[in-house]
Amino acid sequence: MKKLLSFRNLILALVLSLATGCAISFKKKHWDLPPKADNEVSVMSFNVENLFDTVHDEDRNDYAYLPYMVKKTNPKYQQACKEINADNSYRLNECLSTDWNDAQLDQKLKNLSEVVLNVDTNGPDVLMLIEVENINVLNIWNKNYLQKAGYQTVVLIEGPDKRGIDVGFMSRFPLVGKPVLHPIPWKPKNDEDKKWMEQSRNVLEVTVKAPNGDPLTFLVAHFPSQANPTYWRQQAAEFVTKLMKEKGPNTMVMAGGDLNISAEEEDKEHIFSDILAKGGAVSHFVGCKECPGTHNYRKSWSFLDAHIYGPALLADGAGSYQMEPNTIDVIRYSDVHLKKGKYPKRWDYDKLEGVSDHFPLYVRLKQRGPAKNPVQEPAPKAEVKKETPKKKAKAKK
Q1: 3-state class (DSSP) for residue 38
Q2: Tens of pLDDT, residues 50-72
Q3: Mean pLDDT on 200-219
Q4: In this predicted structure, what is the pLDDT of residue 27?
Q5: Which positions ≥6 away from 66 have C-beta within 8 Å?
Q6: pLDDT tens digits along 221-274
Q7: C-alpha distance from residue 97 to each of 65, 67, 70, 394 (Å)
Q8: Reduced to 3 DSSP states, what percent helix, strand and coil does the chain have, rounded to the nearest 5?
């Protein structure tokens, strides 16, 4: 009888372990990948959730992200909160009462830095960033918290989002050419949609010089949220796919960011499989098979964050770098970013803890040959030597 009970207990334990396996194994206690080799480039996209500085930008509705005492003593800011959030009492209270001060920003940047710098011991080579207010807060983060990463390229171009939600870019590789912010050619179905579509985020294009000398191009995107109709995200996906195709099959290009396509929407509308896959390989289709997603909403996981790797970066591609599918990973190693051991821990204004409601998405590109289209450095300017005035010969007496 005791043996039978022991056997039953063993079976029960196995069933429970299988049923809860995802919850137990979701948090990774250590970095699974081998150290990044010299011939590899690492890329990470990260929605940093409302990374604002503490100063008001005149052309932005950033009033929620100001120190409480600044808002309390400025009737203009209080009135702006009321006008912007007239139909939403929750947002109104948030705007008026949130105390986004220097201490809040400092701790958030420390927590963000812990997540970033724990990757590859000193951060990924390239960071595609989502939900950043301006270049000022990126420079503060880079200069005061990310020195170890050695990021020399920091890019953010202000877009049309009046709340101050933009996309940014950091890299330890040098910039090539001039970054471009591509406006999405929206086709609204009504006047109300037209009004808000025109304020949606644009697509940031940045090219850097890879270690072997070839250019690497990145398209950073933040599609309209799930609060908006599906056709908005479909149009954004079509535009990103168009941009990738226009680069041609030999250009090493990668798109990524917060594309806001939920698992339920993908099952129904096939935006990844029918639209974005035409531009290249979709990250969670080709790798990260054990990853449930980057974002969790009501216990439902989605890959809101995704990468699209252009044809030149694939196994049969023409690029000098190749995307490694086995390195695609959702970064979930740090306790500072984990809630209940498995969910993204977003920033808590009262406790001054957490990071973001999204996990970052990571990948490596491996060099498979010498540069095919090396960046041409501008020729150094010829040094112009000033002629030394000749001394006049003394007249003979």
Answers
A1: coil
A2: 999 999 999 999 999 999 999 99
A3: 98
A4: 59
A5: 54, 55, 56, 77, 100
A6: 999 999 999 999 999 999 999 999 999 999 999 999 999 999 999 999 999 999
A7: 10, 9, 11, 85
A8: 35, 20, 45
Place of tokens 């096939």: 270
Other Cβ atoms within 10 Å of 189 Cβ, number: 11
DSSP state of 322: E
CA-CA-CA-CA torsion for 264, 267, 268, 269, nearest 10 degrees? 110
Where are the strands (E) in 136-199, listed by range? 153-156, 166-171, 175-182
Would you say 275 and 288 are in contact if contact means Cβ atoms under 8 Å apart? no
Q: What are phi and psi for residue 169, nearest 5 degrees?
A: -155, 140
Q: What are 3's two structure tokens? A: 């043996």
User: Residue 381 — very low, low, confident or very high, per pLDDT cuts 50/70/90?
Assistant: low
Alpha helices in 145-290 (DSSP H): 191-197, 230-246, 263-269, 271-274, 283-286
Q: Distance between CA 288 and CA 59 in Å, rounded?
A: 40
Query: Cα separation of 93 and 84, whole Å?
Result: 12
> How far is Cα 223 from Cα 262, in angstroms, rounded to an integer?
12
Question: Which of 275, 141, 281, 156 shows the shortest CA–CA distance to 220?
Answer: 156
CA–CA distance, 139 with 146 (Å, rounded to integer) = 10
DSSP 339-374: ETTTEE---BTTTTB---SS--EEEEEEE-SS-SS-
Q: What is the pLDDT of residues 121-151, one digit of tens each?
A: 999 999 999 999 999 999 999 999 999 999 9
Q: Residue 130: phi, psi to the nearest 5? A: -125, 145
**Calpha distance 343→23 (Å, rounded):** 9
Nearest to 236 by CA among 252, 225, 247, 227: 225
Give the integer Cα–Cα distance in Å for 8 and 19: 16
C-alpha span between 118 and 336 (Å, rounded): 11
Contact residues for 282 (Cβ-Cβ < 8 A; gap 6+): 272, 273, 276, 306, 307, 308
Q: 165 phi and psi, to 5 degrees?
A: -90, 110
